[in-house]
Design goal:
Layout lengths: L28 E3 L5 E3 L2 H10 L17 H11 L5 H6 L21
Antiparallel strand pairs: 1-2
InterPro entries: DUF674
Length: about 110
C-alpha cells in the first residue's frame, strides 16, 4: 500500500514576537551537556542543580556561544564521541585537566 504524505513546516508569522515555527513565543531554553533541550524555568534549573549535586551556584559559569558552520561541524563530531558534548566542544580544558573531571569536580556543564 502506497500513500502520499505531505510534510509542511509551521507557518512563520510576520512579527518576530508572533508565535510560529517550532519555538513558541519568547521562551528561554536550557540545553544540557547531553543535548537535551528544555524550557528554562526556576524549577527545572533547581532540579538539574540537585541532580548534578551543585550546592554553590557561584561555581557555575554562563557562556554564550555563537554557532556557525565550523562550530556546528565541531558540535556534530563531538556529539558522536562524547556524552559531555557542550563541555568538550566549547569549553577549553585547562593545563593538567583530564577528560574525566575538572577542578571543581563537576562533570556536567549547562550552557
Amino acid at each position: 500500500m502506497n500513500q502520499i504524505a505531505i510534510v509542511v513546516n509551521p507557518k512563520k508569522k510576520d512579527s518576530p514576537t508572533d508565535e510560529g515555527g517550532y519555538v513558541k513565543g519568547v521562551i528561554t531554553y536550557m540545553i544540557t551537556d547531553n543535548l537535551a533541550v528544555r524550557p528554562m524555568s526556576a524549577i527545572s534549573c533547581i532540579t538539574l542543580l540537585n541532580k548534578i549535586n551543585i550546592k554553590d551556584v557561584g561555581v557555575l559559569e554562563e557562556k554564550t556561544v555563537d554557532i556557525g558552520i565550523d562550530e556546528g561541524v565541531k558540535l556534530l563530531k563531538v556529539s558522536l564521541q562524547s556524552k559531555a558534548v557542550l563541555t568538550d566542544a566549547f569549553l577549553e580544558k585547562k593545563a593538567g585537566e583530564s577528560d574525566a573531571s575538572n577542578s571543581s569536580g563537576v562533570h556536567s556543564i549547562v550552557i
